[in-house]
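RECORD TYPE: inverse folding
INPUT: structure tokens
STRUCTURE:
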């Protein structure tokens, strides 16, 4: 017999060695408003079919917790893959990128097929998915030597999974089955299809939008938000990936192992340079308009998107266009810390719009745009006070004002300034590379790894603290940043083509330093497994002006 302590109820129970979590669940009598889909065992995410052979601490999860949401999302993706193979024999399904609170997917019925997916075809897919759910078809997991897993996927024509496994360096691998369909996922799934009662499917941009439950309201779908500009950015990135013959991580690993890492770094930098030049030239063009010239450039993006370095790099390009950029951050207009809004638990809500003294900021902007000289405050993050240290700004001939910050695109921040005078830029990591055709990489993982590394290098926060703060950061972004991204005049993708390969060397020692008995260990364990899929690449050829240097260190810019 073994002892299992349940964190949900703060109680212990005895079970026979090898009992599955699913069979333990009724004994703990957990009063939970939503279905439980997974668990953490000693702070490591596991599926409910996981068997326990030693005394452990267990926490059961629904999809309000990020680990549970990932389990549910993977399972719905497999459900769609199974239905697609049943409905369109011999087809290939591509789960390409997160968009509109769901995932954009494409179906290729044959090699030459480029036809849009019709409503009738979506209806057939939905009907088959609903049938599988109604039958409560079980998911089965198998762990086998890597050579056997490669053979299984090679026999089924899954070249993307074959490349990923061949370049992973692992000895063993697992795979899943749903009925007669075999697939690979880099994390656990729910026990059976009957758990998957909340999802949606609809035509979207010639493909399919797979909709998912609301993170905070799991019994309902997350609200649909159309994001045409964001979609076009993802599409542009995929086109470049295809030109480079890099559709997934297996392709990138193969290229790096064949000595092409240096070239990939050069191409990644060239693509970002090209985009920054295009945006700067558009700003210059609008600045020189006879009527309603642009004088104010607003730059925003979520945490660790690289907006600070982007602001500095576009300043260089604006100078090359003959303009004189003047910049500051909305952070300098933070209210004194004692006036900062708070969460219900009493902690400071630093991402709240009212953290910025937006009335004073807009008054100063209006003065600057009318030609007056303005004394700009500087926020002292040590004392929590806004200070005036003699910093003065004035816009002269050829001057354009750049304002960077989390709330820069919020309409309330500049509602007294005509839209014709503003140029809005949204910066984000629009990760377009995927592990394989059925495992898209969440864009927030890109940013979280960046933030962990930067916070650690600067001594600002420990990796545990960064991980523990992250859920609040994501919630704030959904409330204060993403609602305004489609208002942007230009979007910039700061994700690097081989970024994870470069981040791996920096992230792994930091993540390994997190103790196993801390809540952050679960996320650290997941990220360590994730980064291990990538062939590590040295950062020695990353130039000092690169956006990545903001996080890795060694930047030639002063922050």
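DESIGNED SEQUENCE:
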């Amino acid at each position: 017999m073994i002892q299992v302590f349940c964190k949900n109820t703060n109680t212990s129970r005895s079970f026979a060695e090898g009992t599955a979590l699913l069979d333990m669940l009724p004994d703990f009598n957990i009063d939970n408003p939503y279905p439980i889909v997974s668990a953490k065992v000693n702070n490591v995410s596991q599926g409910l079919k996981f068997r326990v052979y030693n005394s452990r601490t267990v926490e059961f999860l629904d999809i309000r917790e990020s680990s549970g949401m990932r389990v549910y999302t993977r399972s719905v993706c497999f459900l769609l893959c199974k239905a697609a193979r049943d409905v369109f024999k011999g087809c290939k399904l591509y789960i390409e990128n997160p968009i509109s609170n769901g995932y954009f997917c494409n179906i290729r019925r044959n090699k030459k097929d480029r036809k849009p997916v019709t409503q009738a075809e979506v209806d057939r897919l939905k009907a088959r998915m609903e049938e599988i759910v109604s039958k409560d078809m079980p998911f089965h997991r198998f762990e086998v030597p890597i050579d056997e897993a490669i053979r299984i996927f090679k026999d089924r024509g899954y070249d993307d999974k074959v490349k990923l496994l061949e370049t992973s360096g692992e000895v063993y691998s697992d795979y899943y089955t749903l009925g007669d369909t075999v697939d690979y996922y880099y994390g656990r799934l729910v026990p059976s299809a009957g758990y998957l009662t909340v999802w949606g499917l609809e035509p979207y941009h010639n493909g399919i939008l797979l909709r998912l439950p609301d993170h905070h309201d799991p019994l309902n779908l997350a609200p649909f938000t159309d994001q045409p500009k964001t979609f076009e950015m993802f599409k542009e990135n995929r086109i470049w990936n295809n030109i480079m013959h890099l559709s997934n991580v297996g392709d990138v690993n193969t290229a790096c192992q064949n000595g092409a890492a240096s070239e990939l770094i050069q191409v990644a930098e060239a693509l970002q340079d090209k985009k920054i030049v295009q945006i700067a030239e558009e700003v210059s063009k609008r600045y020189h308009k006879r009527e309603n010239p642009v004088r104010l450039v607003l730059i925003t993006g979520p945490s660790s998107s690289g907006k600070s370095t982007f602001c500095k790099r576009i300043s260089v390009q604006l100078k090359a266009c003959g303009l004189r950029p003047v910049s500051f951050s909305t952070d300098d207009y933070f209210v004194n810390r004692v006036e900062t809004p708070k969460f219900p638990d009493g902690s400071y809500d630093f991402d709240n719009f009212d953290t910025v003294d937006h009335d004073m900021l807009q008054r100063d902007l209006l003065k600057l745009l009318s030609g007056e000289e303005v004394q700009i405050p500087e926020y002292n993050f040590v004392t929590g006070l806004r200070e005036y240290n003699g910093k003065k700004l004035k816009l002269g001939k050829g001057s354009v004002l750049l304002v960077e910050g989390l709330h820069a695109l919020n309409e309330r921040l500049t509602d007294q300034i005509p839209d014709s005078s503003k140029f809005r830029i949204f910066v984000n990591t629009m990760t377009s590379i995927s592990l394989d055709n059925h495992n898209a990489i969440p864009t927030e993982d890109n940013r979280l790894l960046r933030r962990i590394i930067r916070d650690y290098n600067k001594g600002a926060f420990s990796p545990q603290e960064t991980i523990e703060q992250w859920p609040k950061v994501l919630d704030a972004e959904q409330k204060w940043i993403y609602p305004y991204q489609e208002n942007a005049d230009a979007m910039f993708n700061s994700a690097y083509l081989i970024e994870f390969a470069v981040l791996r060397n920096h992230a792994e020692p930091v993540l390994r330093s997190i103790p196993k008995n801390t809540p952050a260990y679960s996320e650290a364990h997941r990220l360590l497994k994730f980064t291990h899929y990538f062939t590590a690449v040295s950062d020695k050829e990353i130039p000092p002006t690169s956006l990545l240097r903001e996080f890795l260190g060694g930047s030639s810019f002063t922050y």
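NOTES: The two ends are 58 Å apart (CA to CA).
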